[in-house]
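Hi F.,

I've been meaning to write this up properly since the lab meeting, where we talked about keeping a consistent format for the predictions we share between groups. The idea is simple: the sequence comes first, exactly as it goes in, then the structure tokens exactly as they come out, then a line or two of notes. No screenshots and no reformatting. I'm using this chain as the first example so we have something concrete to point to.
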Amino acid sequence: MHISHNSEDDNLKQLLSFSINRIKGSCGEFDIYGEKETDISAKELVFERTRYAYNDAVEYFEDNFLSDITSLGLAIAFAKEDDADASV
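Output, unedited:
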């Protein structure tokens, strides 16, 4: 999305917010500003979903990124399990 003006900032912020919530709902919690591999992968999926939403094609996102969504969900679940085991 090559946008060189500010008139769509509010719309893009809203689309990003929706995408963050959707990816968290599908995959689990992540830090959008984090530097862990799962955070970076999640951020990439957020940007991709936002791109689809911006272009009125969000219904194709899950089919096209199913393997990435599944991989991220598993990585987040395993990381959460590892954190729980480390604290015991």
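Notes:
DSSP finds four helices and no strands in the chain.
The mean pLDDT is 92.

If this format works for you, I'll send the rest the same way.

G.
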